[in-house]
Design brief:
The protein contains 10 helices and 13 strands. With about 350 residues, the protein is of the alpha/beta class. The protein folds into 2 domains: about 120 residues, ATPase, nucleotide binding domain (Nucleotidyltransferase, domain 5), CATH 3.30.420; about 170 residues, ATPase, nucleotide binding domain (Nucleotidyltransferase, domain 5).
């Protein structure tokens, strides 16, 4: 154990915890642990006070409630053998109660009204908070990434669907019941495409990684010759065309790929206009897999938003940019949020 990792041992941390509150009562350590629980993988990182990842691990996500909790305990044990942490933050895609302890619903996980924080604290002796994964990512970006210069920031995670989070005057806005900012399910097309949420015409059905693929497939069916040219340009079989293939072909000027991106760009602009009308943010951050190709569509999407938002000529535009921390943002944010909340309680 080196000098950096030996601020205190795991045993010391366990002894210092107050059993009634789960809070550390001794000297603090400069590290916290952030865990991102996805439907396929669990990724965990120890994060220092500057937002740097100093160690990490990953494993597959089990399918049952009890096995999932046991896997999280194992991850915590693995990372804290030689490096103590003050607190643990768990990021999850789902509804999290305002007390940041209970996962009320997670569509890709077995948790339903699950007291995740209390169970993990009971089994590890560490204080634990749970947060929505996009909220955690937004906090990470606000503290250490691309969101720090903004006062009121909307973070959009463009992936399989659209996740969102609001940072208002330096604080996460979570709503009255902890489920604010379900922006991906704002209806943009009455009686439009069906959404897994049970509604129709949700924004994410037109502006997400899934929507991009579906638009590609639909247009390819209408114009197989053009889609075949795209497949050749992207070096992908026609049946395997995806967002990455569209981006590759669009960079080469492929007309079919550019038409697919134009549709996506329009709907992103529609959503950005709605966001500015509702929240009036100074900054909108784009994260998630689709944001990796933002150079292909961002300028056009912001132009669409400028045309559609209310009173566009008489108001300032939000700055729209790509987030900086990538896939690690939710882990960094969860760890720092846990540390920040623990410090506030002391």
């Amino acid at each position: 154990m080196n000098a950096q990792t030996a601020c205190c041992s795991r045993a010391d941390t366990m002894v210092a915890l107050a059993p009634d509150t789960g809070r550390s009562t001794g000297d603090t350590c400069p590290h916290a642990l952030g865990i991102d629980v996805g439907g396929t993988n669990i990724r965990a990182s120890i994060v220092d006070e500057a937002g740097h990842i100093v160690s990490e691990t990953r494993r597959s996500t089990p399918s049952s409630d009890s096995e999932l909790t046991t896997a999280l305990v194992a991850v915590i044990d693995e990372l804290t053998v030689d490096m103590a942490v003050d607190a643990v933050g768990v990021a999850v895609a789902g509804f999290v109660a305002r007390d940041r302890s209970t996962v009320t619903f997670a569509p890709h996980l077995p948790w339903r009204d699950a007291p995740v924080a209390a169970e993990l604290t009971a089994r590890t002796g560490l204080p634990v908070i749970v947060e929505h994964d996009v909220n955690a990512a937004a906090w990470g970006e606000y503290r250490f990434g691309a969101g720090g210069s903004g006062e009121n920031v909307v973070t959009l995670a463009l992936g399989t669907g659209i996740g969102a989070a609001l940072t208002v005057s330096g604080q996460l806005y979570r709503g009255s019941f902890g489920v604010a900012a379900e922006l991906g399910h704002l209806q943009v097309v009455p009686d439009g495409r069906p959404c897994p949420c049970g509604k129709r015409g949700c924004w994410e059905r037109y502006c997400s990684g899934t929507a991009l693929v579906e638009t590609t497939v639909s247009l390819a069916h209408d114009d197989p010759e053009a889609s075949g040219a795209l497949a050749a340009t992207a070096r992908a079989a026609p049946e395997h065309l995806d967002g990455y293939a569209v981006a590759v072909a669009a960079r080469s000027g492929d007309p079919f790929a550019l038409s697919v991106l134009a549709d996506f760009t329009h709907w992103l602009g529609v959503g950005l206009a709605m966001i500015q009308d509702i929240y009036d943010p100074d900054t909108v951050l784009l994260t998630g897999g689709v944001s990796e190709s933002a150079d292909l569509y961002l300028e056009s999407a912001t132009a669409v938003a400028a045309e559609l938002r209310t009173g566009g000529r008489f108001r300032r535009s939000a700055q729209v940019r790509v987030a900086a921390l990538g896939a690690s943002a939710s882990r960094i944010g969860a760890a720092d949020l846990a540390r920040t909340l623990l410090a506030a309680q002391r």
